Amino acid sequence: MALLFSILAVTGSAMFAGVMLAIGVILGGYWKSLPPADFLEWFARHGNLVMRAIPIVVIPTLIGLAGMLWFDWSNSTNRMIWFGAAGCILAVLAITVGYFVPSNSAYAAKTVPIDQVSGKLDTWLMIHNLRIILAVAASALGVWAVSL
To answer: Which residue from 18, 33, 67, 131 has the fewest beta carbons nearer than 10 Å?
Structure first.
Protein backbone atom coordinates (compact mmCIF):
# COMPACT_ATOMS: atom_id res chain seq x y z
CA MET A 1 0.00 0.00 0.00
CA ALA A 2 2.92 2.35 0.69
CA LEU A 3 4.03 1.88 -2.92
CA LEU A 4 0.60 2.93 -4.19
CA PHE A 5 0.54 6.01 -1.94
CA SER A 6 4.06 7.03 -2.95
CA ILE A 7 3.17 6.62 -6.64
CA LEU A 8 0.07 8.77 -6.16
CA ALA A 9 2.01 11.43 -4.24
CA VAL A 10 4.91 11.69 -6.68
CA THR A 11 3.11 11.24 -9.98
CA GLY A 12 0.10 13.25 -8.84
CA SER A 13 2.18 16.29 -7.96
CA ALA A 14 4.22 15.89 -11.17
CA MET A 15 1.01 15.69 -13.22
CA PHE A 16 -0.28 18.74 -11.35
CA ALA A 17 2.86 20.63 -12.34
CA GLY A 18 2.44 19.42 -15.93
CA VAL A 19 -1.18 20.56 -16.13
CA MET A 20 -0.23 23.97 -14.81
CA LEU A 21 2.78 24.16 -17.12
CA ALA A 22 0.52 23.47 -20.11
CA ILE A 23 -1.94 26.11 -18.93
CA GLY A 24 0.84 28.65 -18.50
CA VAL A 25 2.80 27.94 -21.66
CA ILE A 26 0.06 27.01 -24.13
CA LEU A 27 -2.91 29.01 -22.92
CA GLY A 28 -0.85 31.82 -21.38
CA GLY A 29 0.98 32.35 -24.65
CA TYR A 30 -2.28 32.31 -26.55
CA TRP A 31 -3.96 34.70 -24.12
CA LYS A 32 -1.06 37.17 -24.37
CA SER A 33 -1.47 37.18 -28.17
CA LEU A 34 -5.09 38.30 -27.93
CA PRO A 35 -6.31 41.87 -27.65
CA PRO A 36 -7.67 42.42 -24.10
CA ALA A 37 -11.33 42.39 -25.14
CA ASP A 38 -10.84 39.14 -27.06
CA PHE A 39 -9.09 37.59 -24.05
CA LEU A 40 -12.03 38.46 -21.80
CA GLU A 41 -14.41 37.05 -24.40
CA TRP A 42 -12.37 33.83 -24.59
CA PHE A 43 -12.32 33.52 -20.82
CA ALA A 44 -16.07 34.14 -20.55
CA ARG A 45 -16.68 31.32 -23.03
CA HIS A 46 -13.95 28.83 -22.12
CA GLY A 47 -12.56 29.76 -18.70
CA ASN A 48 -14.31 26.82 -17.07
CA LEU A 49 -12.10 24.48 -19.12
CA VAL A 50 -8.97 25.81 -17.41
CA MET A 51 -9.91 24.24 -14.08
CA ARG A 52 -11.25 20.97 -15.47
CA ALA A 53 -8.04 18.93 -15.15
CA ILE A 54 -7.08 20.21 -11.70
CA PRO A 55 -9.28 17.88 -9.59
CA ILE A 56 -8.14 14.88 -11.65
CA VAL A 57 -4.56 15.45 -10.46
CA VAL A 58 -5.11 17.08 -7.06
CA ILE A 59 -7.25 14.33 -5.54
CA PRO A 60 -4.72 11.50 -6.13
CA THR A 61 -1.92 13.81 -4.97
CA LEU A 62 -3.65 14.55 -1.67
CA ILE A 63 -4.50 10.88 -1.12
CA GLY A 64 -0.90 9.89 -1.83
CA LEU A 65 0.58 12.55 0.44
CA ALA A 66 -1.78 11.72 3.30
CA GLY A 67 -1.04 8.02 2.87
CA MET A 68 2.71 8.53 2.87
CA LEU A 69 2.56 10.77 5.93
CA TRP A 70 0.69 7.97 7.68
CA PHE A 71 3.07 5.23 6.47
CA ASP A 72 6.25 7.20 7.18
CA TRP A 73 5.09 8.81 10.42
CA SER A 74 7.61 6.87 12.52
CA ASN A 75 10.50 7.87 10.21
CA SER A 76 11.22 11.44 11.26
CA THR A 77 13.32 12.25 8.18
CA ASN A 78 10.76 11.01 5.68
CA ARG A 79 7.91 12.50 7.69
CA MET A 80 9.51 15.95 7.39
CA ILE A 81 10.13 15.49 3.65
CA TRP A 82 6.51 14.41 3.11
CA PHE A 83 5.37 17.40 5.18
CA GLY A 84 7.45 19.59 2.87
CA ALA A 85 5.80 18.06 -0.19
CA ALA A 86 2.36 18.43 1.36
CA GLY A 87 3.15 22.03 2.29
CA CYS A 88 4.05 22.79 -1.33
CA ILE A 89 0.75 21.34 -2.57
CA LEU A 90 -1.25 23.09 0.16
CA ALA A 91 0.45 26.37 -0.81
CA VAL A 92 -0.57 25.77 -4.44
CA LEU A 93 -4.15 25.15 -3.34
CA ALA A 94 -4.18 28.24 -1.10
CA ILE A 95 -2.86 30.41 -3.94
CA THR A 96 -5.42 28.86 -6.27
CA VAL A 97 -8.35 29.54 -3.95
CA GLY A 98 -7.10 32.91 -2.73
CA TYR A 99 -5.94 34.40 -6.04
CA PHE A 100 -6.84 32.36 -9.10
CA VAL A 101 -10.47 31.56 -8.37
CA PRO A 102 -11.36 35.26 -7.88
CA SER A 103 -9.16 36.36 -10.80
CA ASN A 104 -10.60 33.76 -13.14
CA SER A 105 -14.11 34.68 -12.05
CA ALA A 106 -13.41 38.35 -12.77
CA TYR A 107 -12.05 37.49 -16.23
CA ALA A 108 -15.05 35.26 -16.96
CA ALA A 109 -17.49 37.94 -15.78
CA LYS A 110 -15.59 40.55 -17.84
CA THR A 111 -15.36 42.83 -14.82
CA VAL A 112 -11.66 43.61 -15.34
CA PRO A 113 -11.33 47.00 -17.06
CA ILE A 114 -9.90 46.60 -20.57
CA ASP A 115 -6.94 48.86 -19.80
CA GLN A 116 -5.97 46.62 -16.85
CA VAL A 117 -6.27 43.22 -18.56
CA SER A 118 -2.70 43.04 -19.86
CA GLY A 119 -1.11 43.93 -16.53
CA LYS A 120 -3.39 41.61 -14.58
CA LEU A 121 -2.67 38.78 -17.02
CA ASP A 122 1.08 39.34 -16.58
CA THR A 123 0.62 39.11 -12.80
CA TRP A 124 -1.60 36.03 -13.23
CA LEU A 125 1.12 34.29 -15.26
CA MET A 126 3.88 35.27 -12.83
CA ILE A 127 1.97 33.89 -9.84
CA HIS A 128 1.03 30.85 -11.91
CA ASN A 129 4.76 30.15 -12.39
CA LEU A 130 5.10 30.00 -8.61
CA ARG A 131 2.42 27.30 -8.51
CA ILE A 132 4.35 25.30 -11.13
CA ILE A 133 7.57 25.58 -9.11
CA LEU A 134 5.80 24.48 -5.92
CA ALA A 135 4.24 21.45 -7.60
CA VAL A 136 7.58 20.42 -9.12
CA ALA A 137 9.17 20.83 -5.67
CA ALA A 138 6.49 18.60 -4.15
CA SER A 139 7.21 15.91 -6.71
CA ALA A 140 10.98 16.19 -6.20
CA LEU A 141 10.56 15.96 -2.43
CA GLY A 142 8.46 12.84 -2.91
CA VAL A 143 11.15 11.25 -5.04
CA TRP A 144 13.69 12.13 -2.35
CA ALA A 145 11.56 10.57 0.39
CA VAL A 146 11.03 7.39 -1.60
CA SER A 147 14.74 7.08 -2.34
CA LEU A 148 15.77 7.11 1.35
So the answer is: 33
